[in-house]
Amino acid sequence: MNTQTPSALRNGLAWLRREIALLFKINASDRPWQMPFAAALASGLPLLVGAWFDHPSYGLVSSLGGLVFLYMPPTTLSHRMVMLMACAFGMNAAYTLGLASHFVPVALVPVLAFITVLGVMLCRFYGIGMPGPLFFVMCASIAAYSPIGILEVPLMVGLFSMGTLLASLLAFFYSVYILRRRAPLPVPPPPLPSFETMVFDPLVMGVFVGFSLLVAQVLGLEKAYWVPVSCLVVIQGVTLRAVWTRKLQRIAGTSVGLLLAWGVLHLPLDKWTVAGVMMVLAFIVETLVVRQYAFAAIFLTPMAILLAEAASLGHASPTALVQARFLDIVLGSFIGLLGGMCLHSAAFRRFGIANLWRLVPGRLRT
């Protein structure tokens, strides 16, 4: 009797060890601690102001706008501020479109797909790195499920804009401080645009992000804002290997993060403690995200849930909320994996690009 391990089993065990090693791989980082601290202020100060004036829901909207701080590149002061303000404008536009689609539910899927396509195009054209179009889609998704009346739209857009302005101001003071201690990186040349990267890839991503939300609606998922976000996180991997790894990290980190969120939601949270918890979570996320995405996702999950749900705490069971978000993330991640497989399939790309190219007017092909 052959007692040796079968070849297929050995290969399977080797593959599993590689996946586990990638899942827990820690990357080196020279990010200064002041950057996560400033990012925490950008997210937390609006919540403290909202708590002071007894309008924590207003603080949450501005805190969402404060996420624009994370788009700041490590370049010269003039370049980083121009890029940051451009991203602030994009996030404002995405948030406004998301609010508008709240009143026309049938438009939600095409609007979110459009925001994804345009966000990917702009980020690639101007060479905007991570988080890329992620926060554009996230802001639009959360806005689309915001329980507001139509007369409150100008107020919400104004609050969101104030959050982006505060983040830009913090980014300016942080940049003045840190550039005295660290030399800025050179401004990278803009990437060369092509039909594949500027048209085909964004369209595929937009279709799958919109499809993920459509599936969530068909399944009757309530407040499925995290489905398209999870889909985009996975599908925007630069390689199929990266797509698969990000999917595993997303689900593994989020699963643990949901347990943490369940514990946080059971705390006696009020308007002040929510602000404190958000700042701590933001600091940890920005410290870990450049080192290990799965670990960062553990703390990103309760942070995102608080951003979207803190205004309604006490009105729903924490267990039901955590279960709903877990289903959202698993569904979005699997659809994102499917989209990544299509996006990195040579046969799919040849077929899609050839047929899409025929739709381009002849005068634009040159």
What is the compact description of this entry?
The protein has helices at 7-23, 34-52, 56-65, 77-102, 108-125, 134-144, 153-178, 195-218, 226-235, 240-265, 271-288, 293-309, 318-343, 346-358.
Structure description:
Helix 6 runs antiparallel to helix 9. With 366 residues, this protein is mainly alpha-helical. The chain starts with 6 loop residues before the first helix and ends in an 8-residue tail after the last helix. It has helices at 7-23, 34-52, 56-65, 77-102, 108-125, 134-144, 153-178, 195-218, 226-235, 240-265, 271-288, 293-309, 318-343, 346-358. The chain has one domain (31-357).
The main β sheet shows up as:
none
Unreliable stretches, pLDDT < 50, 5 or more residues? none
**Total DSSP E strands:** 0
Q: Approximately how much helix is present in the residues? A: over 70%
Protein traits:
single chain, mainly alpha, 0% strand
Chart the SSEs and their pairings.
Layout: H1 7-23, H2 34-52, H3 56-65, H4 77-102, H5 108-125, H6 134-144, H7 153-178, H8 195-218, H9 226-235, H10 240-265, H11 271-288, H12 293-309, H13 318-343, H14 346-358
Helix pairs in contact: 2-3, 2-7, 2-11, 3-7, 4-5, 4-6, 4-7, 5-6, 5-8, 6-9, 8-9, 8-13, 9-10, 9-13, 10-12, 10-13, 11-12
